[in-house]
Amino acid sequence: MTKYEISQIILSSVTLTAAIIVACIYGCQLTEMQKTSGAAIDATKLTKDSLDFARENARRDQRPWVSIPTAICSKPPRAGEPIEVNAQVSNTGRSPALVETAYRFFTGESEAANDVQWNTPDKPESVALIAPNSGYVVTAVSDLTLTREYINAVRAGAKSIFLKVSIHYKYPSGNSYWTNVCLKCSGPDLDIGHLHACGSGNEAR
């Protein structure tokens, strides 16, 4: 083997070794770049999630919240007379709300609120714009006339008078919300005409 051939072999070995070293360096750099890119993507997603969470909290903090804290009959229910209830519709949120309310009266067993099914009327019984931390009174008049026997059963706690109220309201930004309220009068509350929340049937969004 000539000196030239030996030198070519050595040169080829050095070149191959250098290529391997360069490939290793490039592979390490690529791995680090992938790690950095993955971390950047994770950081971007975390930032987006944080912004979405902050926006949702701000929206919930500034939105209106409408419900019925109190409801009382204008006079204790009597046999043969329509029932009239004054319900206080209140906005405890930080923004005004355009509020539509609809209601229906029902009778039934004392704990039968879940058995009452009804469709919200096409037209609301009342419409009002409620400022923050303000409210107005909705007067709900029943189309029911109760017998003396039923009134006595309500007083004894065996029966109840139910009032279900559907509240739909809008935020100035256009977002819509709703609250369903179930109220009932039974037992000693009959003689003072006080209605309180049912054990179920109260929900909001």
Structural class: alpha+beta
List the uncertain runs. Answer: none
Mean pLDDT: 78
Binned strand content = 35-45%
Radius of gyration: 36 Å
How many DSSP E strands? 9
Q: Assembly type of the shown chains?
A: single chain
Principal-axis shape: elongated
Helix fraction, binned, reads: 25-40%
Determine the number of helices (DSSP H or I, runs of at least 4 residues). Answer: 3
- Biggest sheet features: 9 strands, antiparallel
Report, as a whole number of angstroms, the end-to-end distance.
90 Å
Order of helices and strands: HEEEEEHEEHEE
Chain-wise SSE layout:
Elements: H1 3-62, E1 66-73, E2 82-91, E3 97-109, E4 126-130, E5 134-145, H2 148-156, E6 159-170, E7 176-185, H3 189-192, E8 194-197, E9 203-204
Antiparallel strand pairs: 1-2, 1-8, 2-5, 3-4, 3-6, 6-7, 7-8, 7-9
Give a summary of the structure in a few sentences:
By secondary structure, the chain is of the alpha+beta class. The chain has three helices and nine strands; from the N terminus they run H-E-E-E-E-E-H-E-E-H-E-E. It has helices spanning 3-62, 148-156, 189-192, and strands at 66-73, 82-91, 97-109, 126-130, 134-145, 159-170, 176-185, 194-197, 203-204.
Characterise the protein shown here:
The protein has helices spanning 3-62, 148-156, 189-192, and strands at residues 66-73, 82-91, 97-109, 126-130, 134-145, 159-170, 176-185, 194-197, 203-204. By secondary structure, the protein is an alpha+beta fold. Strands 1, 2, 3, 4, 5, 6, 7, 8 and 9 form a nine-stranded antiparallel beta sheet that branches. A hairpin with an 8-residue loop joins strand 1 and strand 2. It starts with a helix and ends with a strand. The relative contact order is 0.16.
